[in-house]
Automatic annotation (TrEMBL):
This is Glycosyltransferase. InterPro entries: Galactosyl_T_C, Glyco_trans_2-like, Nucleotide-diphossugar_trans. It comes from Micromonospora tulbaghiae. It holds the Pfam family Glycos_transf_2. GO terms for molecular function: transferase activity. Residues 181-216 form the Galactosyltransferase C-terminal domain. Keywords: Transferase. Residues 7-107 form the Glycosyltransferase 2-like domain.
Length: 437
């Protein structure tokens, strides 16, 4: 048979009824059936899903890959994708029903890129019982079944125009694989999904994160298409999934020692994650251009102490300092390595309680948003005896840096912190230092 232009990868585990609805929707596509193939991955279902797949062999170009044990969502997607033959992979979850025009939109997006890499993220409606029953009866989904309560949570979060302006900075944050496509070559180059992530959650964001940075984070690589429609069927969600997802989040932070992953640790909407990643990326560049965060402003006494202490030092160029054993830096001007990360410091999970003598932050603390500065300080004082907030006395005007945040009024910050910490303020020739214990 001719090579298809689109391979639809459908990972499945249990729930043959939902898979049946998904496969039935693929028989009703505007894209001709000869132009696409379907590969179903069965992740060790107790009752094999082969008979559900076999019922569609007369209407779809379909293949079936079964694992005898449950290996997790990443392994299942990889096993199914290994059978795919098209230059474009589309991932459609087995509890997601495709709108008749869905496959056409994915195929046309990639065809229009003329061989360039790309990712298309489609929209979903989270149906309740009435919508699911209508689809299973073969009836259209009525508008009353698609009100805002059933809408795609990602679209609600980024509905404001300024949120869509944030999308190019970190489009992978919206990268859910229930309805998404990617060029096969990018999939191969990043090694597919990370099979170490066997628990629930974040394996799709990790995949799209790696695709985004593989190509140098170009803003046009991803497109969010609200007309690439799908319908998410009701399914049972274990309450333990939330805890499992936090384990995966911690794994991601260990794997990607960068601020854009660190931001995801906070409880926020998709839109606010996008905004923070954009703002902090701009802040890192603006502080570097403005000469902030440089270690030469450190008082001599503090510099001497750092040479014999176990410390975390945050700033631009601080990895060149002479530091004591057990020290680490968050220096965005130096490569990520064994003792240097591109983090902000709002999580600090890599340090044990009491592991550090001090945390010294040169100016970079001044870009932390009001919601994030407390996380840095309270978690930091669990890891270190004290925190030194260093503020360079000369530098760009706060108003000139907008929208990048910059703490300018140090007295205000010190007064704000005094009810919560022991605070001391010292002025030196090149910097002011706020010490917290």
């Amino acid at each position: 048979m001719d090579r298809p232009s689109l391979s639809v990868v459908v990972p499945a585990h249990e729930n043959g009824s939902a898979l049946d609805a998904t496969l039935r929707s693929l028989t009703r596509q505007t894209l001709p059936p000869g132009d696409f193939e379907v590969v179903v991955g069965d992740d060790g279902s107790a009752v094999a899903l082969g008979p559900v797949v076999d019922a569609y062999r007369d209407r779809l170009r379909i293949d079936y890959v079964r694992s005898e044990r449950n290996g997790g969502r990443s392994a299942n997607r990889n096993a199914a994708a290994a059978r795919a033959r098209a230059d474009t992979l589309m991932f459609l979850d087995a509890d997601t029903v495709a709108h008749p025009g869905l496959l056409q939109r994915h195929r046309d997006f990639h065809a229009g890129r003329a061989g360039r890499p790309g990712v298309l993220l489609g929209q979903r409606y989270d149906l309740d019982w009435a919508g699911a029953d209508a689809l299973r009866r073969g009836e259209p989904v009525a508008p009353a079944m698609l009100d805002a309560e059933r809408g795609d949570p990602r679209l609600e979060d980024i509905a404001l125009p300024q949120r869509m302006d944030d999308f190019p900075s970190a489009p992978w944050v919206l990268g859910l694989t229930h309805n998404a496509s990617v060029d096969h070559e990018s999939f191969r180059r990043v090694g597919g999904f990370d099979e170490a992530m066997v628990k629930w959650g974040f394996e799709d964001l990790d995949f799209f994160y790696r695709v985004f940075h593989l190509h140098g984070a170009p803003p046009e690589l991803f497109r969010l298409d609200v007309d690439a429609l799908s319908y998410h069927l009701p399914h049972f969600r274990k309450t333990s999934n939330g805890l499992a997802s936090m384990d995966n989040m911690k794994y991601l932070l260990r794997k990607h020692l960068r601020y854009d992953v660190e931001v995801l640790y906070g409880l926020n909407t998709f839109g606010r994650h996008l905004g923070r990643i954009r703002l902090y990326g701009q802040a890192i560049e603006a502080y570097r251009a403005g000469g902030l965060g440089r270690p030469d402003v450190l008082p001599a006494s503090l510099r001497d102490e750092l040479a014999v202490s176990a410390a975390l030092v945050v700033g631009n160029g601080v990895s060149a300092l002479a530091l004591g054993a057990g020290s680490h830096t968050f220096d965005h001007d130096a490569p990520v390595g064994e003792t240097n990360s591109h983090l902000l410091g709002t999580v600090l999970q890599q340090f044990k309680a009491g592991a550090l003598d001090a945390i010294v932050n040169v100016d970079m603390w001044r870009c932390l948003l009001p919601e994030d500065l407390p996380a840095f300080l309270t978690r930091g004082l669990l890891k270190a005896d004290r925190i030194e907030l260093v503020a360079t006395r000369t530098g760009p005007d706060q108003r000139a840096l907008l929208p990048v945040p910059l703490v300018a009024d140090l007295d205000y910050v010190a007064d704000m912190l005094r009810p919560h910490f022991a605070v001391a303020v010292a002025a030196y020739d090149a910097a002011t230092v706020i010490t917290l214990r």
